[in-house]
Amino acid sequence: MSNNAIKANSHPYPGHGVNGYTSAIGITVRGSDWYWTVTAIMTAATFAFIGLSFTKPRSHRIFHYITAGITMIAAIAYFTMGSDLGQTPIPVEFVRSDPKVSGTPTNQNREIFYVRYVDWYALARCIDRER
After folding, report:
1. Can you tell me whether residue 84 is helix, strand or coil?
2. What is the reported pTM?
3. Beta partners for 21?
4. CB–CB of 14/22 below 8 Å?
5. Cα separation of the two ends of the chain
6. Rounded alpha-carbon distances, angstroms, from residue 52 to 45, 49, 65, 127
């Protein structure tokens, strides 16, 4: 079975991508597979922390709940990246000569995942609560 997340969420029409731009350099199927793997691991960890919380007295469960929240926020972020969502094209700063990574002569944009920075912001707030 193939990973069709990139095909399902791609922008086939030039100029109709995110913010009116498309990116020639973006995530590959292998990269998407990796993000899906991390999503599965983080989701499993979330359920593990919730399950472990029941082995503790009610007064000590909050630490497990916060940790489960942290891993679930990370799972959502990796799900978004694996689905090729939460990204925006930006101009390439250093143009390379290798055609595999240089884009096209008319489109030298690459995608960055802004959802990663949203994830970091949200996780920092959760980690501060845990202390």
Report:
1. coil
2. 0.80
3. 18
4. yes
5. 43
6. 10, 5, 10, 19
